[in-house]
Amino acid sequence: MNEYKASIDNNNGKEYNPSDRKKLLALPFFLSKRQELPEPKKGQKEWDIFYSMFGAEWDKYDNINFDQEEKITEFNYEKFIPAQILKNMDT
Question: pTM for the whole thing?
Answer without folding.
Answer: 0.39
